[in-house]
Amino acid sequence: MRIIIKVAITAVALWVAELLIHGITVTGDTAGKRALTLVGVAVIFGVVNAVLKPIIKTLGCAFYILTLGLIGLVVNALLLLLTSYLAGKFSLPFHVDGFWPAFWGAIVVGVVGWILHVLIPGDDKDDDD
Fold first, then answer.
1. A Pfam family name for this chain (predicted)?
2. What is the mean pLDDT of each run of 10 residues along the chain (129 residues)?
């Protein structure tokens, strides 16, 4: 159940990023197709983050320390660009136009995702107590 909530939160965060950031587009004939596209992209984004982010953090540990973690913003932008590329390969109508839309979009996705994780109960492992 928790993974469904995480995918839904990421899909909403991507939708907000699309609304706020010029250069992030989701196209579709109907609202239902756009919503399914966002869910598909959220799954891709989750897999990309789950697989690549720990590897990047491990290999780039010195850069994270040197930049006090600010390199993480660049990494997140590049992961969002990779997600856009992979979405295109899966014929999902989601596109990020370049680095700067990806940079700001990654910030929006991170902030909105964090806010939704705080607001939605039952998403933490500690809730079983």
1. Phage_holin_4_2
2. 90 96 92 93 95 90 89 94 95 95 96 93 54
